Structure formats: C-alpha cells, structure tokens
Batch of 4 targets.
Target 1
Amino acid sequence: MATSIQPLGQRVLVKRLEEEETSAGGIIIPDSAKEKPQEAEVITIGTGGKDDNGNDITFNVKVGDTVLISKYGGTDVKLDGIDYLILMESDILGVLA
C-alpha cells in the first residue's frame, strides 16, 4: 500500500487493525463503546537516524508486520479517508507472530 506520508527519523506509520464488532455472546458493540485497538499493521517506516557514534540505526520492524502498540501513544493522521497513526519505533511494544 502506497501512501503520500513518509515518516522522518525513527517514526513508523501504522494502521490500527479493527476489532470485532460483536461480543462473544453475540451483542453488537457500538463504536462509542469500543476501545482503541492495540494491534496495528506497519505501513511505512521512517528515514532512520544515526547513533552517537555516527552509525546507522536499524529498524526492528518492517512493512507488513503486525505490532502491539499502546492505546494512547502516537499522533493520529487521516489520509484519503483512512485513519493512520505515526509513532516512534520505541513506542511499539512488540511484534506479533
């Protein structure tokens, strides 16, 4: 998926994965009662950076990874009607297998 946003530095552009709209008991959960999903797909990674010694910093995530993110971190952005989130790679809690 191509986007017109290129994150800078150690930032990552992700798209939150939608949660189920019905509970285990079959009850439909309205949008206003849903929590923000903590799973997201990595769409684009940033330009990277340099450490204190001038060496390149490598990313631990790659495009297409499903990651676990905090509920309230990052900056929400909307592009072509799709909601994305830009956050620092260090704010990613883990990569889901």
Target 2
Amino acid sequence: MHIHHEVDYIEFSVTNIAEAKHFYSKAFDWEFTDYSSTYVGIKGRDKEIGGFTQTAEVREGGVLVVLYSHNLEESAMSVQKAGGTILREIFSFPGGRRFHFRDPFGNELAVWSDT
C-alpha cells in the first residue's frame, strides 16, 4: 500500500546495470525485476522498493528518494509554494506519473502516483 507523501521508493543511478545487480545481490541478497536494459526494480518483501536506472554519469547526490502522492498536481503546487523548484514537470512512465524537484537545500527528490 502506498501512503500519501511518505517515502515510497529509492532510485539509484548506475553506469552499469549488470555490475550493480551483481554487487547488491552478492552483498545483500537483493533480487530484481528486469524492466529494460536500462532499468531494473529492486524487490522488497511485499512490494518493489526501488530501482537502478542506467545513466552515463551517476546522479549528483547518488540516490533519488521518491515520495508517493494521491494527487501529483496538488503535490507539485505544494512543493513550489513551500520554496522548492520543479526540475522535471509531471511525466508518464510505465506504472504511473511523476515529477522531480529540488528542495531549498539542493536535494533532488521525486514524487510519483499510480493514477
């Protein structure tokens, strides 16, 4: 179950999906769901808890924390009103929609919804 405005997912940027899967499965016994050659999900006990996205360079700050929202448009407006900066407007992806923002301290986060 997804809870409104709670941390719901973490996304690692990696330069090599196969190496990332090898490391994390060996170090922590993590299991994965392959979605494409550039994205895999990290299986949790009851739901998918994160993923690896392959990029040319690792995202500054490393891990992307992803919150869940029942209403993305409302959450985006709240972020802006609170002083955050929208980095990527709402976009669709398989499984839902999301946007990225930067908080006043420079941290990049995302908010997603399955509706």
Target 3
Amino acid sequence: MKRICQQLLTFILVAALFASCKNGENTSAATATGDTTASPTTAPKMNYAYTIDHPDNWDIGSSQNTANALSALKAWENKNLDESVKYFADSIHVRFDGLDKTISNDSLKALIAPNPDTKAYSVKMQDWESVISKDKKDEYVTLWYREYHENNAGKKDSIDIINDLKMKNGKIIGLEQYTRKLK
C-alpha cells in the first residue's frame, strides 16, 4: 500500500511539473512583454484585396471620449447649444457634404444651430465605437444613429447619420458627417 501511494504521489508530481512547463511555454512571450492578457498565438498575416499604409492600426479607445461625444449630441438634440459646444475644442475641422474647413467654436455653434422651421428633433442611437491608433496619435469616436425631426407644419422626416469625431485630450477637434436620407 505504501509503495502504491509513493508511485501515485510521484506520478502526480511529474504530471504537475510537466503541465507547468507546458504552461510556461505558452505564456513566455506574454510574460516577457509584461502583457499577461496576450494570446499565446500570433494573428495570421492577412492578404487583403486592397492595401493601405497602416492596416489593422486601431485599438479600442477611451470610454470617456465616447461619453463626451454622446453628451455633445444629446445636448444638441435638446437644443442646448452652449452645453453641446463645450465638448468641442476652440477650433474644429468640419467635413459635411460640400463643406471642408476649420472653424472656431463660435462658428460651429452657428453651423449646428437647429433649423428655426423645425419643431422637434430626436435621436435613436444605433451604435458607437471609440478607437485609438496603435501609435496613440489619433483618437476617434464614431456614432451611428437615426435622427427624426418634425417641422412647424407637422411634417415628419428622418435621416441616418454617421459622425466621425476626432478627439484630442477629451475634446472634439474634428467632425465628419455622412448622411443618408430615408423615404
């Protein structure tokens, strides 16, 4: 009985040692870089149909940037322009259909002011994403939403909008807007 217990204990110790050696092989690269969340395998290099200068260049960005972008939009929806523009920098590069220039915060306020013929606005958010470039130089928040509006005569309409907001130090420094009118 004593011999069986010794053999069983030896077997368990050898198995544990073997398992720990195998585990060390899988995590050595991650441990060497200090990244304990890294995958033990490297992503395969993709053969994309098109090429760009920096493929696969983005990581998940700041949740605070997302909160700031959403707060700016919500304030605009509520027709509180002073609150909305406080999330923007002093100078903002805007790109809309037919417009591509850098403007001041005051000019932005005039540009995004609600149409006086519009009685009500509402936004139904569909999705958002915050990203940061791998070199940490560029940060963006992208918002996908549908905007509903009703004019003073009671006519209702809607439009799908994508906003790409370039961020720096928690402020919006760029606004690109893409729209699709709905029937």
Target 4
Amino acid sequence: MKQKKQLYEGKAKVIFDGPESNTLVQYFKDDATAFNAQKKDVITGKGILNNYISEHMMLAVSKLGIPNHFINRINDREQLVRKLEIIPVEVVVRNVAAGSICARLGLEEGFMLKNTLVEFCLKDDSLGDPIIAPEHIFTFGWANPNELKIIVENTLRINDFLTGLFLGIGIRLIDFKLEFGRHENDGKVEIMLADEISPDNCRLWDAETKEKMDKDRFRRDLGGLIEAYQEIARRLGIKIPEVS
C-alpha cells in the first residue's frame, strides 16, 4: 500500500494527501485540547466517535443542498474529503449564551439570545482566534462580500436544521463552529463547508437535565466525555464500533 503523505496536523485531526487529484484524507485523532491547546489529553476512542458523527452530519447537510467537502468514510478514523482552499475565518453560531461570550459580555450561561448570533474569528491559534468583523474579512482579502453572504446563508440554514434535528432527540444546540473553503472544479469556484460537525465543535445540552454532552466535559473536568459522545451517537441512530 502506498504510504500517504502527511500535509498538516492540527489539534484533533491529521490531513494526508488523497488517492486522487483534489482529494485529501482526514484522520481523526484521540487528542483532546482546550483553551487553544493550553490543556491537552488523549481520550481513547474520541476520534472514532467524531468520525462517525461527522459523517452522519455531513451527509444530512448534503441533503439540504449545502455543498461540503465530505466524500465518504474510509474506515473508523479516516474520511475521504475534497481538497479545499480553507478560508481562515471560523464562523461561530450562538443560540444560547455559553463559553467565551459570557466572559466577554458579562452574560449568564444559559441566557437565551433574542436571535441567532453569528460571529467571526480569525483562524489563528497563535493569536487566540480573535473576533473579527466582516470589514476585517474584506479588508484583508480572506473572503469577498459575495462569499461571506453564501457562508452566512448556509450557516443559518445549517443552524435551523441542526437545531430541529437535535431537539428531536432531546438535545439543545447551544452553539457551534464552522469552517468553509473554496473548491475549484473546471475553472469554477464553489464555497463548501469544511472540517467537521461533531460534539468537538458543538455545544450540546440535554434538553431536560441541561447536562453537557460536548467537549465542555473535558474543558471543565466533568469526566464522561466518551459516554456523552456515545449517547449522542445512540440518539442519532449511528452504529459505532465498541470504543475501549
């Protein structure tokens, strides 16, 4: 078997050159990080769970007509994805106040926002992923107004869909983070959803108990992260190999 060429290693994933032109292999690690990697650990099986859950989510998003980089799951830890030019902007969607916005604006965790709030952050760990305005995005050429319009429209559609999907299985979607990129094919450039959709980049609370079912279990030393991710997969009807 031909050895895959590693192109990039992030906090939770490794990216390899794909078997065909304009493809990549996305490998899900068991590494858990928080606070811009100031807190680190390895949680056995986390990568497998995120791989299967993200596959489920990306396929669902595709059915909405929203293009994304996912092609297929290769095995328990790897996905075949389209090669994109990643836009260095993280899109944060907030339905309920939690996390950094509470510290920034003095809000109480759990405060229901009057409307869905979309924030933008520069994707740069060394700078702490600072919040930026659309004007920064345009000024520095990270995306043009039409691209940002597509990103925001697709983000809000994804939020509406995921909110209903999770509510149907007794989970509240508090907030989540998305990334997008440009895919070029036959001279045409299309904006596509990238990265993953999993409990690693979503805040998810049990609708009745308000129990946290996401990476906050690691951030806050609550324990039981694998069990929470497994419960999400179970409620979504995803069959996952036994994690040990």
